[in-house]
Design a protein that fits this description.
The structure is a single chain. This protein is globular. Helix 3 runs parallel beside helix 5. 32% of the residues lie in helices and 25% in strands. By secondary structure, the chain is of the alpha+beta class.
Amino acid sequence: MLEIILDDVEIALGASSVLTNLSYRFSSGTVTALVGPSGVGKSTLISCIGRLMPIDGGEITALWDGEELRPSRYRELIAVSRSDLSLYGHLTAEENLRFFLAQRGIRVPSSVLKRLFKRVGLSEFSLKEQVQNFSPGMFGRLQLAFVIASRAPIWLLDDPGAGAGESGWAV
């Protein structure tokens, strides 16, 4: 079982404290939602848990069956989807997927990508479309496709339904 333990975590952006004295234990097999108004630090916390951003105090520890994980192993087990995820706009959705999955050592046959796109509510024609032409909803669905295809057991989804409309929540 994977556990992510936050112990007195403090996060600041410049001179402003975003989060202070935050302690929590996340466990695999559970769903946890961070809910609150804009600007309270939800996205920042997700970035820190995903180790995309440093913390300013406290500690974030990841344990697998009670043993602390090496940083490289932690990155294999975590998939992060953020609204500001950078993709290569001039590349197609398929090219972006293949590139980023290759960074994880994952190769996916075209037939699997077609099924994955259907699962997240994108047409197979979207695979061949340049990402710069995607609507916000399509972009959000593509992010979800990345997370699913990553095979990571822990998903950190930042505002997963943004721009996806009512049908996006059904995914």
